[in-house]
Structure formats: structure tokens, C-alpha cells
What does this fold into?
Amino acid sequence: MINPHRALLLAAFATSTIAGCKRGSDSASGGAATASGAATTTELAISEIQLGKKLSADKRVAEATTTFSPRDTIYAVALTQGSSPNTTVTARWTYEDGGQVVKEDSRTIAPSGNEATEFHISKPSGWPKGKYRVTLTAGGSTESKDFVVR
It folds into this structure.
């Protein structure tokens, strides 16, 4: 037989734990609250790379394209999901199959949920025509997207 005092304590603990956890709420560290009250982080991953010539107000690509003119500014946006108190997103732009590095850049972010991180390259004298690739890395996630300059 269960001790009535012990049963009452277990019921009170369960009720206070459930009341303290709201569905979908995040703790101050950006992670979801667990039944024990400890915070966890959701692994950050790149969900998509957007390429285009212009950005919208929300820092996403306004019109996606993978074909550019030599004097275009080329935008790459890393759309990430997850949370992290401090993650570096890097962009590596390369030209042709030899992998000649055009530019490398990085941004430090502290996302909680979905985040858009913008990178761009431009060359007033004009990009050489050919095939290019941008590779974006965040946390343990790496994604690449090919594009051409015509």
C-alpha cells in the first residue's frame, strides 16, 4: 500500500512541474524547457540557401535566381532552424571546378528558432563568366548551392 503522504507529495510535484512548463515556451537560453526545469538547445541546422539579386525587408531573398550578370551583387541567405547561444555562420564563395576562392566571410548569430543570415559579393569591374558555388556552414551543418554568371 502507498503511503498517503508520499502520494500527496508526488501529486504536488507533478502538478507544479506541469504548471511550470508551457507548451512551446522557451527558456532564457533559447532552448525548450524540460520537465526537470533544465534548458536544452535544439541543434542548429541550415534548412535552405536562397540566392538572388535583391533582399526583402525581412533579409530574405526577394526573387530567387541562380543566373547572374557580371555586375550584379549576388546575395546568399542562410535560413537556419534551431537555437544556439553563439554560432558562427560562414560563407565560402568559389569559382569554377578548381575551387578558386572568391571570398570567405562569417557572421556570429544567437538564434532561437528560424533565422536568416545574409552574405553577398559584388565586383564593380564585373565577375568573370562561369560557374560558381557558395558553401554555407553553421554548427555541424553544411549546404552548398551552385550558380552561374553569364
About this structure: The first strand starts at residue 45 and ends at 52. The chain has a mean pLDDT of 80.
